[in-house]
Amino acid sequence: MDKPVKPDLQFAKEIIKAGGESLKKCYQCSTCTVVCQLSPDKAPFPRKEMLYAQWGMKEKLFNNPDIWLCHHCGDCTAYCPRGAKPGEVLGAVRKLMIQHYSPPKFLAKWVADPKYLLLLFLFPLLLFLGELAILGYFSGTEIPRGEGGVMAYSAFLPAVPWIDVPFMAIAAFAVICFYLGVKKYWLDLTAGVELKRKDIYNCIYETIKDILLHKKFQFCTSNKGRYSAHMLVLYAFIGLAITTGIAAFYEWVLHWPSPYPQTNIVKIIGNTSGIALLIGMFLVIVNRAKNSAQQGIGSYFDWFLITVIFGVGITGFMAQILRLAEVETLGYASYIVHLVFVFVLFAYAPHSKMAHMVYRATAMVFSKAAMREENIKKEEAA
Amino acid sequence: MHHNGSPNRILVIGGGFSGLTAGIEAAETGAEVIIVEKNPYLGGRVAQLNKYFPKICPPLCGLEINFRRIKVNPLINFYTMAEVESISGTPGDYTLKIKLNPRYVNENCTACNACTEACPVERDSDFNFGLNKTKAIYLPFEQAFPLRYVVDRNKCPKDCPAPCVDACKYNAIDLNMQAETINLNVNSIIVATGWKPYDAQKIDNLGFGKVKNVVTNMMFERIASKNGPTGGQIIRPSDGKPVEKVAFVQCAGSRDENHLPFCSYICCLASLKHTLYIKEQNPDAEVYIFYIDIRTPGRYEKFFNQVKEQSGVNLIKGKVASIEQDAESDDVVVVAENILNGEKIKQKVDMVVLATGMQPEGLEFKVPGLKYAVDGFVIDAEGIYSAGCAKNPMDVAGCGKDSTGAALKAIQIGVRR
Predict the structure, then answer these.
(1) What is the pLDDT of residues B364-397, one digit of tens each?
(2) Distance (Å) from the C-alpha of residue B266 to the closest C-alpha of chain A?
(3) What is the fold, at CATH topology level, of the domain defined by B199-356?
(4) CATH number for domain B9-101+179-196+359-416, candidates 3.30.460.10, 3.50.50.60, 3.40.630.30, 1.10.3720.10
(5) Beta strand B214-216 with B351-356: parallel, antiparallel or unpaired?
(6) Residue A44 contacts B, CB cutoff 8 Å
(7) Looking at the partner chain, which of B292, B318, B321 has a beta carbon nearest the beta carbon of A35?
(8) How many beta-carbon pairs under 8 angstroms link A with B?
């Protein structure tokens, strides 16, 4: 006989608090599982996850790739006869899952709690203001100008050490947090499971291909707008990563400090990506507002990331425009705020919703290795 | 007749099983009853059933008894094709305006069918939910009461030379008949406006109207009825193939806040009853009933157990949420998760029956002067009493009891005065 199930009501309450308010409304009809285009035939989701959530079965929820195979299209929520909003509940579970896996735990808690919002921003703000104080800008030192006497952020705050050191430090921090989190998650996923495919590298390659093509999003029926919005944001990030790479090359290899001419390749890629980011995020917000009645408007956790990414884009453009217009004080201020937003985005990536890219990708690799989605692949082929 | 000498008058809105029961019960205690019915016939939804609970017998026999009680009781008057236009007054003294829509056929009609034979146009049979056609002049169904033809004037072509009028030997057809309004004074009102099947097209993931051979449970009653479009042969609409595999989709639009938020009470029993219809014609047929919970309240549990034990009856816990046409045939594929083993099931069948629920008439069609709850059910007031499915989804036996109770409440108003 199976062991009797021990409900963990405390954890069920945590899910409710994390944005899964509606979870107790579920009466297990499994409409959600059938209308979900991403759900596999064997042990499909999210009906079983709704049951696990009601009983507070933490391990069943966390050691399960399905909460990440869900892309929150909202088809389940739209068709749910009870307003139980499985999409929102799974979103709440994902948030708790990130808190569970990404160290340090306190930081994950802070990112998820509006009480700590100011603190999260205050830390990088004080850091950069401290740098400015060291440079003497608050005690009368004149802010140097760039080559040819133009306003230049590289003269205001030279990349080495004032930018590169803190950002390389937080990048290292984020990578370590992600590494530890993913390692723990992978071990939990694979515990007692024999992977049917041994070619893990192929699984990773296929996952990356799926992500770049946004294959899963194409299946969403009730929220088609998400496909293009999310795709735009993804490619904007890729573009901005390339921009950063080229800029680093100029800086370190060519010893050519910014600003670069607007027609330079680095500016063209950067500005195009920036505009794509803003449009993409605008569409994300519009979609959420449009579908809020059907799907819920999302949680603080969702909006934290949306706001931070939007903030990065807006302050980035502001800093650039004000620099070109030689508006000094406001320009420098925008630049500092931009750095603060970028810091928040990267330093807390393992703990904010940004972590979805890593954990979802891990779940996708696992499900390929475990051949979890065979039938979906067949349908894709047909 | 009550103590001050004037008669106790009761108006019954709706001439279905509940309205008939309430009206007849009241009249048999000496009250004067007027029944107002929107359709051209009495009997309502029950008249459309093949068999009904609790004895699984043909309902026309039960209705016949009631029609007979009406015919022999001079205290009962009824109007078909009639609608209540307004209600005013207070308990014990109501004034109503009733609109009588023209039938275009008078009481001379002998139901000889000569007019129908002459009529050149066809219309979808509303009695058979569009499964077949009737002429524009037609008899609602063979055993209709009153047994009189009716004209669907909207379907008559403008330039029709009216061969029906020439064909009628009894001078029964008057195509110039006009609507009229009458005033009635009554002591109390019984509202027995009943229900209609929930519009299955609104459930966009269940394919009704798009996928061939997806029918509703009420359509299935007509298909199984001897006086129905197939003469009672259970065959599928697209190609007339006798069905060997049938899927029943429970809670199609019921218990669903996007559709009807309540349980319609009868659909589980109806699908189990339909299983018997199928098994009677084809004992080897496979029936798949997809359910959230099978609800057979009270003593109906026994019926559930009887049907469950039959061979070829497959009960699958999991709601069907997707219905598609088979790629190569007129077959239908229903998709659900079998919750008990946690696997999706894609079952190919000959025909799908959607167990659609009861939408109270009051949701879309409100009688002026009555109060309704948000879901369309009637709210009682002193002097105004709901009966049957206008109040709550219920089975026919429940309607009988509820209507008898409503009759007593209505009688009391006139007696107390």
Answers:
(1) 999 999 999 999 999 999 999 999 999 999 999 9
(2) 19
(3) FAD/NAD(P)-binding domain (3.50.50)
(4) 3.50.50.60
(5) parallel
(6) yes
(7) B321
(8) 61
Residue type, A33: T
The domain spans of chain A are 9-100, 105-369
**Helix (H, G, I), strand (E, B), or coil: what is residue B386?**
strand
Contacts of A258 (CB under 8 A, 6+ apart): A146, A152, A153, A154, A247, A250, A251
Q: Which residues are CB-neighbours of B392 under 8 A, at least 6 positions away?
A: B265, B377
Residues in contact with A49: Cβ distance below 8 Å, sequence separation at least 6, in sequence order:
A61, A64, A66, A67, A86, A89, A90, A93
Which residues of chain A have a pLDDT value below 50? none
- Which residue of chain A comes nearest to B346, CA vs CA? A41
CB-CB neighbors (< 8 A) of A42 in chain B? 342-344
Cα torsion angle, A62, A65, A71, A74, sign: negative
C-alpha distance from B299 to closest chain A C-alpha (Å): 25
Is the pLDDT confidence value at B327 over 80? yes
Please state, in angstroms and rounded to a whole number, the distance separating the CA atoms of residues B214 and B223.
Answer: 13
Q: What's the whole-number average pLDDT of chain B?
A: 96
What pLDDT was estimated at residue B60? 87
Q: Is the pLDDT of residue B29 over 50?
A: yes
CATH number of A9-100: 1.10.1060.10
Residue-level pLDDT at B1: 45
